[in-house]
Amino acid sequence: MSELFINKNKSGLTRNLIEALFPMFEEASAGAIAVDRDSQITWINTSYSHLLGLDDAAKVIGKPVRQVIPHTRMPEVVQTGKPLLLDIMEHNQQQLVVTRLPYYDEAGAIVGAVAFVLYDDLQPLTPLVSKYRRLHQDLAAARKALAKKARGTRYSLGDFVGGSPEALEVKRKARLAAGRDMPVLLLGETGTGKEVLAQAIHAVSARAEKPFVGVNLAAVPENLLEAEFFGVAPGAYTGADRRTRDGKFQLANGGTLFLDEVGDMPLPLQAKLLRALQEGEIEPLGSNKVVSVDVRLIAATSRNLEAMIADGSFRSDLYYRLNVLEVSIPPLRERLGDLGVLCEALLGEICEGQDLRGEITDAGVAALANYDWPGNIRELRNVLERALTMSEDGDLLDADAIFKVLPKGGQRPVAQTPARAVRPLARIVADAEAQAIEEALVACRGNRTKAARLLGISRSVLYEKLAKMS
Ligand SMILES: Nc1ncnc2c1ncn2[C@@H]1O[C@H](COP(=O)(O)OP(=O)(O)OP(=O)(O)O)[C@@H](O)[C@H]1O
C-alpha cells in the first residue's frame, strides 16, 4: 500500500498494486476487464464474459474493447488518465453501474485501464434513486412557492383552470381587468376561485411588482376592522402600540388591495371606505393627519349586493365605486365540462412533493358530474383528497372510489366507509372536521352564516377553517 503514497509521479496505481487489488475487486464485483494503452482487451474474467453473453472469453482478447462493449468509456480513461469512478452504462438493454481506473507502469506512463461492474442490477439503488427524486420534487415545489411569495401572490392566470366557454369568458374578462387600472368586483359562490382570480389579475397587471394584500371582511371581528384597514397612530388608545401600525391600505400602497367578502362590511366602515376611495386618502385610527394612498381595489363577494342595497345593508354609492368592472364566476355545476382538467390539475397539486401519482379514470370524472357542488372547486379538491386517502387500488380513482366519498344530497354514506390503515390522529380529526363543514355547507346550500350557526362556531372561525382547507 505504501507504494501508492511514495510514488509521486502520478496518482500511483502501478501494475503491482492493481494486481494486488484485483482478486478482492474481482470477487466483490459482478465482472472485471482490463485493456492496454490501445484500448484492446488484455484480460476479462468469467463473470463479465457471462454478463456480456460471450461464448468464449479467449476470443475477445486482443480485440478493441468498443467492438465488444460498444458503450464503454475505457478508451477515454486510457487517453485522459482520468478515472471514471461511477458511471451507468447500458449494455443489451441492461443498466450496469461501473467504475473505470487507468493504471501506470513504474515510470508513470499509462499502460492501460481496468473496469469493474459494481452492480448489474439497479434494484439495490432504488431507495437512493427514489429519495433523490423526492428531494428534487420538494426542491422544485419550494422554488415555485418562493417565486410566487416574492410576488406576494400564489396564483397566476394559468392557475384558473378551465377550458369551457364559461371559464374562457372569465379569463377574458380577467385579462381585460388586468390591463385597466380600475376597481373590479368578482362575483361567485364560495370556492369558485375568486381569490385565485384576484391574485391572477394582480399578477398580470402593471402593479405586479408591488404588493398584493388581501383582507377577508368576514374573518376579522367588527371592532378591529377599522384598525385593520386604516392602521393605528402611536398611542391612539389605551393599550395601543407606541409605534405606528400600518393598515392594509398602507401595506398595499402602490399595489392591489383585495377585499374578500365585501358584502360583510359593516355600514360605518362602508362610509369610511367610500371616502378613502373618493379622496385617495386615509386617516389612521387616533391620528388627525391624512395619508395618501394609491391602491387598486379588487372586491369579491358570494352575496347578492343588489338585494343588500334594496334592504339597506349595503351602500349603493360604494357598490357603484367597486363595480366598475364586474366578473361573474359561474359555479362548478354550470361548467361540469371542466371537471376533467380540474381533476388533473387538483390531483397534481395534491400529490406535489408526495410519493403519490393521483389519476382519475373517465368513469371517475363522470361520477363527479352526479353532484351539484355547493362548495365548488374547494369542495372538489377535498373530495379528491379524501378519495385518494381512502383508495385501496393505489392512486387511480375510478367511479367506485368517487362514489364512496361523494356526498349524497347532504348525506354521506357513512356505513360504506371501508376499514383502512390507522392514520395519525391529527389527520383523522382534520378530515372529520372538513367533512362536517362540507356537510353543513351542503345542508345550507353554501350559505356560510347558516352553516356556521349549524356547526355552533362563529363565521370568522368557519372562514379560518375554510382557508386552511383550501
Ligand atoms: N378555476 C380554478 N382552477 C383551479 N383551482 C381553483 C379554481 N378555482 C378555485 N380553485 C381552488 O379552489 C380553492 C378555493 O379557491 P378560492 O379561495 O379562490 O375561492 P373563493 O371563491 O375565493 O372562495 P371563498 O369565497 O370561500 O373565499 C383553492 O384551493 C383554489 O386553488
UniProtKB/TrEMBL annotation:
Gene3D superfamilies: 1.10.8.60, Homeodomain-like, P-loop containing nucleotide triphosphate hydrolases, PAS domain. Transmembrane segments: none annotated. PROSITE patterns: SIGMA54_INTERACT_1, SIGMA54_INTERACT_2, SIGMA54_INTERACT_3, SIGMA54_INTERACT_4. Residues 160-389 form the Sigma-54 factor interaction domain. GO terms for biological process: regulation of DNA-templated transcription. InterPro entries: AAA+_ATPase, AAA_lid_NorR, Homeodomain-like_sf, HTH_Fis, P-loop_NTPase, PAS, PAS-like_dom_sf, PAS_4. Keywords: ATP-binding, DNA-binding, Kinase, Nucleotide-binding, Transcription, Transcription regulation, Transferase. It comes from the Bacteria. One of its GO terms (molecular function) is ATP binding. The keyword Transmembrane does not apply. The keyword Transit peptide does not apply. It holds the Pfam family Sigma54_activat. This is Sigma-54-dependent Fis family transcriptional regulator. It comes from Marinobacter fuscus.
